Amino acid sequence: MINSLQTLYAIYDLTSSPNSFDYAKFVVAAELHRRLSGYERVHVIIAPDRGDVDWLNNFADDEFDWRARNILAPLNALMPSFKGLTVTQNRNEFKKILANYSGDIFPKHYSPDQPPAWNDWENVVSASVLGHSIPGFVAPQHARHYVQQWISHACGDRKLVTITLRETTYETERNSNLKNWTTFADGLSKEEFAVVFLRDTGRIFSAPPPDLRDRLVFDPASVHLELRAALYELAYMNMFVGNGCGEIGVFLPNTRYVHFLNVPDKDSPTGFIQDRIENGWASRDRLPFARPGQYFVFGSDSLDNIRQYFVKAQSPAFQDKSDVFKPTTLRSEEIVLLLKSANRDSAVARLKDALGVRDILTWLTEYYADHELPPLSPRTAINVCKRMANDLALIGEHEKSLHWSFREFTFHEELGTPKNEIIGAKIAKANAAINQQCFEVGLELLTDVWESGVRSPQIKKLLILLHEQQGNEINAGQILEEKPGGGAA
Q1: Longest alpha-carbon distance in the chain
Q2: Which helix H or strand E contains 36, and what residues bound it?
Q3: Which one, of 254, 198, 220, lies nearest residue 78 by Cα?
Q4: Backbone angles phi, psi at 373, to 5 degrees
Q5: How far is Cα 278 from Cα 287, in angstroms, rounded to an integer?
Q6: Which of 207, 266, 281, 436 is most enclosed, with most CB atoms within 10 A?
Q7: Distances in Å between the alpha carbon of 316 and those of 123, 255, 295, 350?
Q8: CB-CB contact of 277 with 385 (8 Å)
Q9: What DSSP string describes 163-203?
Q10: Measured between alpha carbons, how far is 73 from 86 in angstroms, rounded to an integer?
Q11: Is 17 helix (H, G, I), strand (E, B) or coil?
Q12: If you count DSSP H runs as helices and E runs as strands, how many of each does the chain have, helices first?
């Protein structure tokens, strides 16, 4: 029987979790659990995919095995307490190993028949909100030794800036804009900075594009994760667009970085609103636990953005060495709002209980009655407000729902939504409120429509009836005397 009071067994089940760099978040979450539980080390067991979730790990067998060997296994080397790894070949073997173990397991309440859903950033963000320091990666010392030799030879005493490229054949709209990056590199002082490019692993075996010829490229990092982490640790600045390797960069505490989530196409999977707000940190261009000089930007790698954030990330004095990220300083309401708006129910439930909040919708509405929303784009803010308004209306809280609807209409105006569309949305919401016998809400909405210049006979009739229903005979009479005109409903 396997049992050790010093070892935490962490299970990464490929049935519900991706065979990709997203494994980095699992490593960090498991290490946090180890520290909070008092174990000395972590042993990871990788459970094979049952074969019924093709959308998640849709790779040929040889690529699937390659990724497990060259992404999952090496990432364990970046967390010093991770001392063991078992890769099981089939579910029966995995279940036999599990049956012989009686100790603590991460994730809690793990079941091989119902593996937990992939939480992505949820565990990390929730832990930071609850006041925990987030463990960071550490490059192995020997890898740092090798990379330092290369830096001394290739860069001398200049400040090293790494640019990690995305050059994939799928969702190509998210790839690095190589012209912008080379233009940026050419604009830096060659006496002060040495710029090194890191190519996609699948591209280093072919000839480089013309824009990369005669430039400094470090191909060993593209095939060896320990060398990649060491290079990032030793660099002055690391710059990425959204790709898997960026997962290493954002979990190295003692670095400066800028990571662009390149979403130029609104129809790209990464362009969906859920991907922009679901993790609770999209609004401030930073992960909630980020240290000074670390930026995660929900925007494209335009030349202006690259230059702007390079300056921002340089600004803070270099920080003291640490193996952790401090807890977030962002308001809990801000992060919970974004999680709630993106249907991250498990994270919201976890935070709700831990924060002692009885009613999340009321809690958020009361806070944002007196506070501005996070600095979201108008389009994102519209979706946040709409989700909150709809959820409140579903439970009959129409007055609270109205609070969010008016905010939604304000952002529509900021976005430039045509006036007739905004008026139509207000009338539709008013009719829904009246049908639910929430006459005060309907009256407030229709009054807003009337005062915006709409003087249709139908709106006039409804307003008079609503005022009379509320006992406002004087207001009903004033509207009765007004002449039709203005915009059409």
Answers
A1: 88
A2: helix 23-37
A3: 254
A4: -65, 160
A5: 12
A6: 281
A7: 28, 11, 12, 34
A8: no
A9: EE----SSSGGGS--HHHHHHHHHHS-TTTEEEEEE--GGG
A10: 10
A11: coil
A12: 21, 14
Task: Read off the pLDDT of residues 357-408 as tens digits, 9 standing for 90 and up.
Answer: 999 999 999 999 999 998 887 878 888 899 999 999 889 898 899 889 989 9
Q: Tokens standing for 266?
A: 């609104």
Tokens of 444: 């407030």
Spatial CA neighbour of 449 closest among 435, 437, 466: 466
Task: Give me the amino acid identity at 237.
Answer: M
The DSSP annotation for 280-332 comes to S-GGGTS-TTPPTTEEEESS---HHHHHHHHHHHHSSPPPPP-SEEPPP-S-H
Q: Are 443 and 399 in contact (CB under 8 A)?
A: no
Structure tokens belonging to residue 330 = 């962002």
The type of residue at 488 is: A
- In tens, the pLDDT along 36-76 reads 999 999 999 999 887 665 555 666 677 778 888 889 999 99
Which of 451, 458, 467 has the alpha carbon at shortest distance from 489?
A: 458
Global pTM reads 0.86
Q: Distance between CA 364 and CA 408 in Å, rounded?
A: 15
CA distances from 70 to 52, 138, 218, 229, 366 (A): 24, 18, 18, 14, 49
